Amino acid sequence: MGFLLLGVDSLIACLAIGAIVDRRSRVPLAALFGVCDGVAFLIGSAFHWQISDPVVTTVQTAVLVGLGLYLIVVSVGIRRVARTSGVWILPFALVLDNITYGLVDQSTSSVFGQAAQQAASSASLALVGLLVGALLPRFVPAMQRRAVASGFAGGALILAAGLELVVG
C-alpha cells in the first residue's frame, strides 16, 4: 500500500478540479496522470536527472496557484464558463517529483515494474479525486452553476498548492 503515496499529488489536484471535469473526461484525465507520472519516472531513471526539492516544489506550487487564479478570474468575469481545458496541464505540471523520486522498491529489479506502480498509483488516486470532487455539487447546490464550480476549483487548487507544500 505504500506505493499509493506516490499518487497523493494527483489525488489532491483532482479533488480540487473534480467538480468542473465533465463525465466523459474523468477516465482519460486520470489515465493521463498515470501515464505522465510513469513516463516521468522512466525518463528520470534513464537519464539520472536530479532536480532539487525546492525547485520541484516551487514549480508545482506556481502551476497550481496560477491555474487556480486563472479559474477564479474566469469564474468572476464570466457567468458561463465555457472552457476548463486548463486542467489538462496538471498531469504534466505534477511530474517533476516523479522524475527525481527514485526507486519505489529497492528489492524490485525492474524499472518498468516500478514505473507501472507509479502510473497505477497516480491514475487510481486521480480517478478517486475526480469522482469525489464530482460529488461536491450534489452537496453544495450553488456549485451546480459552472461559474461557481470553477471559482471553487480555483480556490481549491490554491489550497492544494499549500497542502502540496506540507505533504511534499
Task: Give a brief rundown of this model.
The protein is mainly α. Helices cover 70% and strands 0% of the residues. The mean pLDDT is 81.
Q: What is the end-to-end distance?
A: 18 Å
Sketch the topology as an H/E string, one letter per element.
Answer: HHHHHHH
Tell me the count of domains: 1
**What fraction of residues sit in β-strands?**
under 5%
Fraction of helical residues: 55-70%
Secondary-structure-based class equals: mainly alpha
Please give the count of helices.
Answer: 7
Major β-sheet, in short?
none
Present the secondary structure layout.
Elements: H1 8-17, H2 26-47, H3 53-77, H4 90-93, H5 96-100, H6 111-139, H7 146-167
Helix pairs in contact: 1-6, 1-7, 2-6, 3-7
Can you describe what's shown?
The protein has 168 residues and is an all-alpha fold. It has one domain (2-167). It has 7 helices and no strands. It has helices at 8-17, 26-47, 53-77, 90-93, 96-100, 111-139, 146-167. The relative contact order is 0.27. The mean pLDDT is 81.
Task: Give the key terms.
168 residues, mainly alpha, 7 helices
